[in-house]
Amino acid sequence: MPDEHRFEEKFISQEAEKRISEKLDEVEKIEIDVQTDLLKIAQGQAHGVSVAGQGLVIQEGIRVQEIKLQTDSIAINLFSALFGQIELNEPVNAIARIILTEVDINHALASDFIRTQMQNLELNVDGKIVSFEPQQIQVFLPGDGKIECRGKVLLKEMGNTRPFAYTAIARPRTHSQPAMLESFNCTEGEGISIELVTALMQKAQELINIPSFKWDDIAFSIKDIEVGIGSLTLIVETQVTQIPSLTALSP
């Protein structure tokens, strides 16, 4: 590639690194490579963007140990970009490799953002709706492809509220096998009916089998999950229709 193209790419990439770093609460390392040239810049386009980062904290409690991401071609509103606001003219596809540590996952589960997303979940128990609200969740990654979860829940049924605690072991869905819930045990409480246990296991199976989900203008599709000792690696495909402000994560 001609030197002038590399100069353009380097300048744009350094500016992107600066802007992203300013929006993150913390960042240990981030490298952004915008693949473009002068003509593409004038047209508000880039051939693609690659991102490599370590120790990224989006907001308090939400941390990513490592991320590597590559997009396809990008078309942006150049006028808005000049004033620091990136607006996409066309959706952008990207694939990312994300590593989360056991500590990062548990910090995220205890954050206000995640807790607000997990309130008042519902179960269908023999045609009756029972709501449950997670109070505490802790994840352990012992290796061998397993995820162990321990938690406490408030069950609300027929006007009564009662707590119970559980442990569960699951194997997440991968490119070669479906998700499997290996065990589910109640560890505290007065006990619950077989029908409720069945509904809980079905709900857990449903959650771990979700093929894709959406946050604001970003659609995520998890293609593979690798569970190691103390860490979780996700291979994720995304389609971004618009780039949200990082402050949108705040509850």
The low-pLDDT segments are 1-5, 246-251
Helical/strand content category: alpha+beta
Largest sheet: 7 strands, antiparallel
Strand content: over 45%
> How many helices?
6
- Helical content band: 10-25%
How many runs of DSSP E, i.e. beta strands? 14
Mean pLDDT, to the nearest integer, reads 79
Overall geometry: elongated
Helix and strand element order? HEHEEEEHEHHEEEEEHEEE
What's the domain count? 2
Instruction: Give the C-alpha Rg.
Output: 22 Å
- What is the straight-line distance between the termini? 45 Å
Brief rundown of the structure:
The chain has 251 residues and is α+β, with helices and mostly antiparallel strands.
How would you describe this structure to a colleague?
A hairpin with a 2-residue loop joins β9 and β10. 24% of the residues lie in helices and 49% in strands. The protein has helices spanning 3-23, 38-42, 78-82, 102-109, 112-117, 194-208, and strands spanning 29-35, 45-46, 48-59, 62-71, 74-75, 92-101, 121-125, 128-143, 146-157, 160-171, 180-188, 212-215, 218-228, 231-240. With 251 residues, the chain is of the alpha+beta class. The chain has two domains: 3-102 and 212-249, no CATH class; 108-208, no CATH class.
Give the secondary structure arrangement, pairings included.
Blueprint: H1 3-23, E1 29-35, H2 38-42, E2 45-46, E3 48-59, E4 62-71, E5 74-75, H3 78-82, E6 92-101, H4 102-109, H5 112-117, E7 121-125, E8 128-143, E9 146-157, E10 160-171, E11 180-188, H6 194-208, E12 212-215, E13 218-228, E14 231-240
